[in-house]
Design a protein that fits this description.
heterodimer; A: alpha+beta; 14 strands; elongated; B: mainly beta; Cyclophilin; nine-stranded antiparallel beta sheet; 18 strands; 34% strand
Chain lengths: 229, 291
Amino acid sequence: MIPHYQLLSPTLGELVWENQPSDELLGYQLAYLNHIQINFSDTLMEARQGFTRISLVWRNLKNQQEFLTHLKNLKLTPMELSNAIWQVPVCYDPDYGQDLNSLAEAKNLPLAELIQLHSEPVYRIHFFGFLPGFFYLNGLSQRLHTPRKSVPLLAVPPGSVAIGGSQTGIYPMQSPGGWHIIGRSPISLFDIKQPIPVWAKPGEQIQFEPISTSQFQNWKEAYPKLIRP
Amino acid sequence: MSQLLGKATLLRCPPGTSLQDEGRLSGAQYGIPTSGAMDQKSFHWANHILQNTVNPVALEMAQPGLRIQFDQDCQISLAGAKVLASINQTPLSNSSLISIAAGDLLEIGAFLSGSRLYLCIQGGFQVERHLGSGSDFESVSSTSKRSASEVLTYVAFPQLNSLRAKPKWETSWFESPEIEAYRGADWELLSSAQQELICSKTFHLSKLSNRMGIQLEELVPNQLEELPTNPVFPGTVQLTPGGKMIVLMRDAGVTGGYPRILHLTEDGQSKLAQKRAGDPIRFQLIETITG
């Protein structure tokens, strides 16, 4: 999984992998990201990660070319991904998941089975994007893949757990959104007052833990529990 | 030596007014947008006039109507859109460098050309910074926009002597329709017919424009599917499955799933930020990447 590099502007370029998103690819991405951040901290302005790319912003073209030369002889081994799992409570109730019933109907699934399909897998956090504190996860059951809504909702409530395409995620704050909302989590996903405003890192895992409406209403903890398999 | 702080009261504040600077570079890892002044060129010019350094915070306006009163002496500079402005109801002939005396009232009238005005102040407005930036953004700064009766803090400076030459802000640079752009990361996915269309057609800015992005009216027929979500930046042009082109601007999310077909130069982004709904633009592709 050796990436190639695409020069996009004098200061912007990206590492390109042609593979599908996977744990293995993520391990390589994190290894490259780590290597670059350690060795090019003086000339790298910014790095952004996606499912199959890492975009790099350089101080100038010369710095970017220096990196390109360095990359030619670079062979990294993938970073080992964490086994830690964050347990994220979710209330799967039509009161909080306004699309729960319609999705179950469209998928021809009993509600309990839909909830099980969503809360059973362990999902891998790949990167943050879309909104502050919104993590992109890999691992949604194929049975739950659902095209995004044609008309997005103007105000998805904060904490909403939703499915869009082959993705699932949690809206950290109120926002317009085209994903199908199946529940809500009482925990905080983004707090700018903390030194690091998010509690999880790319490469870590999460699992959704179904909770009742009354548990949701009385939930005290701002952060999820960290458990290990 | 302690600094004397001045207070600037927003007596009237039109919608779309916010504090902005160069933006945040270290927030993308948490999903935080770049933010910052939409037209960095004008923002930098005015701050250069004021000899400001270290990411000064300025007021960005997208509509006329601001009334702001200063309670201490200071120097300010207006750049970006060409506007009618007055101090204590006396129209200003040159608003590039204005010496403000304690009690002065600045009023911003009609926008004659351009879309975004910067009120920069010597030393920058004093606000709490998050990840190195004082730019307003929902959930990152204390507020996402400014409103009437708010008070902004600045460092008071004695008035300059009048011997200093007064530069004049020119706006002709943003009036032509040509916008320079590099090929985007997913440019090669387009058919040659699509590529030719994008390079030759005149597009017009849609009304659907804000600090997150500017949509273009004309469609580019498109069969491309969504792609795995990958990084985007201010200046990235996305092509939606419906054929709509969206130019991402400063508050855009840091990743996206639509093909990234172009990437505007920094000047191109500043120029586009000064365009209005209905204005024509043409993309000028940059063939070679040079320093």
